[in-house]
Amino acid sequence: MSTQEILETPAPRKPWAQTPIDKAKTAAIFIASVLIAMGLVASTPLSGKLAFAAIFFVVYLLIDFVVSFLKAGRPAAVDSLFRGLVTTTIIIAVTPIVSILVTVWARGHKGLHWTLFTRDMHNNAFTDPVSQGGLLHAIIGTFLLVFFAMLISVPIGILTALYLTEVRGRFTRPIDFLVQAMSGVPSIVAGLFIYAAILVPLTKTVNGIQGSLALAILMIPTVARTSQEVLKLIPSDLREAGVALGGTQWRSVALVVVPAARSGLITAMILGVARVAGETAPILLLTGGSGTKNYNVFSGSLGSLPNYIWQGFNAGTPESITRAWAGILVLLAIVVILFTAARILGNRKVGKK
Amino acid sequence: MTIEPGESQGEEMETTTSKGSLSDISAARLQKQPGNSALGVGLEARGVHAWFGEKHALANVSLDFWPGTVTALIGPSGCGKSTFIRTLNRMHEFIPGAAMAGEVLLNGEDIYAPGVDVTKIRLKVGMVFQKPNPFPSMTIAENVLAGLKLAQLKVDNKGELLEECLERAGLWSEVKDRLNTHGGALSGGQQQRLCIARALAVRPQVLLMDEPCSALDPGSTLRIEETISQLSSSVTIVIVTHNMQQAARVSDYTAFFLSDGGPGQMIEVGSTNEMFSRPKDKRTENYVTGRFG
Amino acid sequence: MTQAPAEIPAKREITTKPRFSDRVFRAVVTSGGLSSLVILGLILLFLLFNGYSTLKSQGIHFLTSSNWQAVVNDAGQFDAKNSHFGIAAMLIGTMIVAVIAVFIGVPISVGAAIYLTFYAPAFVKKIMVSAIDLMAAFPSVLFGLWGFFVLESSGEYWAKLLNKYFSWIPIFKLPAPYVNRSPFIAGLVLAVMIIPIVTSISREIFSQTPLDRIQAAYALGGTRFAMLRAVAFPYARSGIVGGVMLGLGRAMGETVAVYTVLNIVYQVNWHILFSAGGNVASMILLKFGDASPQEIKALMAAGLVLFVMTLIVNSLANLIVARTGKSGR
């Protein structure tokens, strides 16, 4: 055993990684499955893309099973069958997302034009040609609805999260439980509640703020839960440092904890907004759906994007449905932008500004 | 240099507290000679390197494990001994970013060769971990036979195998009346012996033990050491330990690992008695006499 | 010293009198924290208050009868005597579409979670997780329109296949050859809608599987599937049941998507492929537009039933999930 000789360090290997031969085998099975599936679709009464996909998965799993069985026996074959199955499920799970995005673009972009963002519908019906009218009023309405919902729900949501992580009083467990229960409240129930609590006894008519209140109910659990997760990540020595320096708990929370969690709290807010921006059911009960711009949430019918989409869809003509899809495209763009912003902010390290 | 008492209890205490104890303990063992045995050709590491991402954790370890012997891997923490033992049954590759170089030969065949079925390797080279990890959803009996279920092996007489494995792990008399209760109720030492029985049930040729006693109390440690001694006639054992008395008590051969800031290396290997009485390398001497580590 | 030295002194209580600013802070935060209790309480109270007259006049028939008639007499007055409100058909419809959604959505979600936790390469995992989380933020009206215009045709295709080969099972029979806008298709849309939540909860639970047990399974020569079966499934089982129930709760309360996709007919229909069905939430939306004040009270009662149902399902689900998260199993 000579350790004297000077040895060069060999290159790191990963013998467990797939070799080119393995990859070629996988590719061969894949191509064979495609061909067999195409053959079956062409030669039997089964037809269509769906049939093709289904046959392909079955054929692929079968061939893969047999090949693994011949190579390494039953356990390996079952393992590889299961791998194939879960891979299939993730493909099925992601397919609707792709399909939805493609559909919204394909059907919605026909209804896009620049005046969409500068005009409203007060002179037009949904059945008018798509180039007429616009959804400026709906964007304004959705913005107002969401803004006021935010004004109500963000303080409540963050206070709830602070109670659950900082104060930890004797109601911590029940409140934690209730916040989770609240996240399951159906949106139509939130709408009915505001209808019963405010519209019937007080206002007796539709207006924007009622919609905001209903949205706030749906938004509070999202804001509270996300904020709670963020505040949990703040290291406790940061809190103790604040208190040990002679600060009160209030100062420690206001000057140390909340600033450290700031980007996370903004993320919570954005996720809450994304959750409710497209909420339709309570809007239909509470806000009305005026086609005219309305900047006052406290009086008058307020149009909004969900309402615009709903009216377009229910009017049922090709023009109105194209309008609805254009509305969805705008709404989806807003949701995706908000979601991406939340992701980028949320990926920042907690504690950094 | 005296070794702190309290590491172990019972008769062994007398010998461990006296001076020069490690070589005395190791000399008291019947030295096994290397050679062919009925257990197969054995396990050989040839120039093994290991990486975690960019970090070179282990460099150029070549080591033979003779059939039917106990080899202890000692060294301070971070010296690569645990990494090395995990390359021996291909558990190393579960760490993301892991890579390796060199060969590990089991009965003359490279376990890292392309096309080798890794699950078959792990059946031949079993492993016992630092923390006892019985499956909590299974009963004691199911735990012992879990390997058969996992690898879908067929056995004619499960009852016999169950008794034999628990007997070999030194647990049969303690659990024979409650085989169908859950393993979670056992003490830590019993759980670890249950894990040994579980590893034995698939009839491995080699048993790797990664600090099997570090989470246990001294009494349980002694029981495990007895078990190891009894097993060593029928299975090749490789044990990682940071407890030098344990190495002296249970092993036939000892390999000393050390890292000088760079990748861990094997400094010296030899019969346990020699390693503790007349080590060749100054660093080994410093370590076994307790000057560092 | 006159006292015996061995006597153990009484424990002193460590008390800190909070400063005034802290007491204000705690009061404000606590009142904010209690808001969820207040809101849930108010929802219950107002729906009960408004729905009480209906519940009282209809009694148990509100839940067991499928007769919904708001009769207006010749004078244009609401005729309480001849009006009947019973939501049995819609309750059954709610359960049918929600169960179909769970039946289809859960295997897909759990499989996807297993793939993401134990199989996916890091970059695939990142993209897929983002995509599925994004889907959770899609508005339900979007799912509704997508279901109506896109999924409908595939759904009809599958419905015809099911009817062709499995019509010996009663629920796949068709009383008339109409397979469009059926509970089956509504269930498909809801299945897609619950995939994000069930996937993310299952993924979270699977990722907590103790590493030492996973390693033990591999070290015994187990394949990945054998490891999953011996270690990950037993560990995650009850948590996934909780996730499934959360999905069920979501599916039960969905309004707009069901309204868009389903042909709402006020009758009990067990033939899931047949073009008739409904659920409580979509029924409320459907009847709300031209309902008299008395009928709205009946709808409030229906909302109360829906609220209580989802609350129970969600609470059970959360209890189960929380229990799995804490215990070692």
Secondary structure topology:
The complex is a heterotrimer of chains A (353), B (293) and C (329).
Chain A: H1 20-43, H2 49-72, H3 74-108, H4 136-167, H5 172-182, H6 187-203, H7 208-233, H8 236-244, H9 249-260, H10 262-276, H11 281-286, H12 305-315, H13 318-347
Chain B: H1 12-17, H2 21-28, E1 43-52, E2 55-65, E3 70-74, H3 81-87, E4 98-106, E5 109-110, H4 118-124, E6 125-128, H5 140-144, H6 146-151, H7 158-168, H8 172-175, H9 188-200, E7 206-210, H10 218-231, E8 236-240, H11 244-250, E9 253-258, E10 265-271, H12 272-277, H13 282-288
Parallel strand pairs in B: 3-8, 3-9, 6-7, 7-8
Antiparallel strand pairs in B: 1-2, 1-4, 4-5, 9-10
Helix pairs in contact in B: 2-11, 7-9, 9-10
Chain C: H1 20-33, H2 35-58, H3 61-64, E1 68-69, E2 84-85, H4 88-119, H5 122-136, H6 140-166, H7 183-207, H8 211-219, H9 224-253, H10 256-261, H11 280-288, H12 293-326
Helix pairs in contact in C: 2-12, 4-7, 4-9, 5-7, 6-7, 7-9, 8-9, 9-12, 11-12
Q: Could you give a short description of this structure?
A:
The complex is a heterotrimer of chains A (353), B (293) and C (329). Chain B is of the alpha/beta class and 293 residues long.
Keywords:
heterotrimer, A: 353 residues, mainly alpha, 13 helices, flat, C: 329 residues, MetI-like fold
CATH fold group of chain C: MetI-like fold
Number of helices of chain B: 13
| Rg value of chain B | 19 Å
Q: At the fourth CATH level, what is the homologous superfamily of chain B?
A: P-loop containing nucleotide triphosphate hydrolases
CATH class of chain C: Mainly Alpha
Shape of chain B: globular
Going across the biggest sheet of chain B, name each strand in turn: 6-7-8-3-9-10
N- to C-terminal distance of chain C: 56 Å
Looking at the overall shape, the CATH architecture of chain C is: Orthogonal Bundle
Strand order of the largest sheet of chain C: 1-2
Taken together, the total number of domains of chain B comes to 1
Structural class of chain C: mainly alpha
Q: What percent of residues of chain B are in strands?
A: 15-25%
Into which percent range does the helicity of residues of chain B fall? Answer: 25-40%
Number of helices of chain C: 12
Number of strands of chain B: 10
Q: Please tell me the overall pLDDT of chain B.
A: 84
